[in-house]
Specification:
Elements (H helix, E strand, L loop, with lengths): L1 H27 L5 E5 H6 L3 E3 L2 E17 L4 E5 L4 E6 L6 E2 L4 E6 L1 H32 L5 H27 L4 H5 L6 E5 L4 E4 L8 E2 L4 E6 L4 E8 H4 L7 E6 L6 E7 L10 E8 L11 E17 L4 E3 L2 E10 L3 E14 L3 E5 L7 E4 L8
Antiparallel strand pairs: 1-19, 2-21, 3-12, 3-16, 4-11, 5-7, 5-10, 6-9, 7-8, 9-11, 12-15, 13-14, 13-16, 14-15, 16-20, 17-18, 18-19, 19-20
Length: 370
């Protein structure tokens, strides 16, 4: 009898547990792709609905580079004739205008050139008169050809000397008419060929400067460009006209430009090529040789995309939660497998997905159970 009672209670317990187990499986629902959340949960988890949107996807190539002067934004100054520094009119780092006096160069070589020019100028007048007269006589068959050629040769030889001296003195800014009057200058001024800032100036009064030395360097900080170091693997993607976005090292402010020169020669040591870009932000005062980081936009395309947090991955599969319907207290969502395309740090492309579909774009990761 006691055993019968035990069996009866065991049977009752089994039926109760079986009933509870059956109830649990029904609550979890046979369709695991359907998810129900309360509106209180939606708000507390800071969830957000949205729709796929048109997004400008940019394919980028990262680069490092620096600010450099354009070819017309930098000038290295040399003296046409060597001599002694007689006067200095500027300080290193000073801003100068085009044509402004930098320093005066003097010495015996400058005086000798003026004397040679004055002598050649006087001689050329005499030889020119002889040449004109000989040409008339030769045309009238009074002088022989050989006589005329000797006179012509002497005239043209001296004319070459005169022209060379004239050009050299003009490069020094010396007044030629004053020389022919016997008024010589004991020095001449070296002037700035461009406006800008004087750099690399290291001369003092009394120091000798030869014509094969650079006397100073001037850089115009407003005539600048961006020099970009591009690795060999990225070079084929790049081309003239592509947009450039960059920022100075340690600075978050972005500036823009456009590639205007491509160098297709790879440096054997760095395995990179130097390309150049025009800088749009003319109002910004950049410093020469400032280092930068940036990206070249090699391709831009409008795509259908959603924020990265809207997509949840499981292995090779990707899913989003589509809003099916709602009532007063709950939202009903449907887990949908999707195909993705291009992606960056913010957005991911959806392939073959409707723009009008409302999905959970934020806060849905913990709702998905794989």
């Amino acid at each position: 009898m006691k055993k019968d009672v035990i069996y009866i209670w065991a049977g009752i317990i089994f039926l109760v547990m079986s009933s509870c187990s059956t109830k649990t499986s029904v609550d979890e629902n046979s369709d695991t792709d359907l998810i129900e959340i309360t509106k209180d949960q939606f708000q507390s988890e800071k969830m957000l609905f949205g729709k796929p949107e048109q997004y400008l996807f940019e394919e980028k190539v990262h680069f490092t580079g620096k600010i450099v002067p354009k070819t017309n934004g930098m000038a290295k100054i040399s003296v046409p004739v060597g001599g002694i520094v007689k006067n200095i009119n500027i300080q290193p780092g000073e801003l100068v205008k085009k044509g402004e006096k930098i320093m005066a160069i003097g010495g015996s070589a400058i005086i000798d050139l003026q004397q040679q020019f004055a002598s050649s100028a006087a001689k050329i007048k005499h030889l020119k008169a002889d040449y004109d007269r000989a040409q008339i006589l030769y045309n009238d068959n009074i002088k022989t050809e050989s006589e005329f050629l000797i006179i012509e040769s002497n005239y043209k030889a001296e004319l070459g000397i005169y022209s060379a001296l004239k050009l050299k003195l003009q490069s020094m800014g010396i007044n030629l008419e004053e020389i022919q009057k016997g008024l010589y200058q004991n020095s001449y001024w070296v002037t700035a060929p461009i406006k800008g800032q004087v750099v690399n100036f290291d001369f003092s009064l009394g120091q000798f400067v030869s014509s094969d030395q650079y006397a100073a360097e001037i850089v115009n900080n407003h005539e600048i460009q961006l020099q970009i170091a591009v690795f060999e693997k990225d070079l084929q993607q790049m081309g003239i006209g592509q947009k450039v976005v960059f920022s100075l090292l340690g600075d978050s402010i972005e500036y823009q430009g456009q590639i205007n020169f491509m160098n297709h020669i790879i440096d054997a040591d760095t395995k990179s090529s130097s390309c150049y870009a025009e800088i749009y932000d003319k109002g910004k005062s950049f410093a020469i040789n400032q280092m930068v980081n940036g990206n070249v936009i090699v391709e831009a395309d409008s795509i259908i995309a959603v924020p990265n947090q809207a997509v949840v991955s499981a292995g090779d599969l990707n899913f989003v939660l589509v809003k099916e319907d709602e009532n007063e207290n709950t939202f009903h969502l449907h887990k949908v497998e999707i195909r993705t395309g291009r992606a960056n740090q913010e957005y991911v492309e959806l392939l073959g997905f409707s723009e009008n579909t409302e999905i959970l774009i934020s806060g849905g990761y913990n709702l998905l159970s794989f």
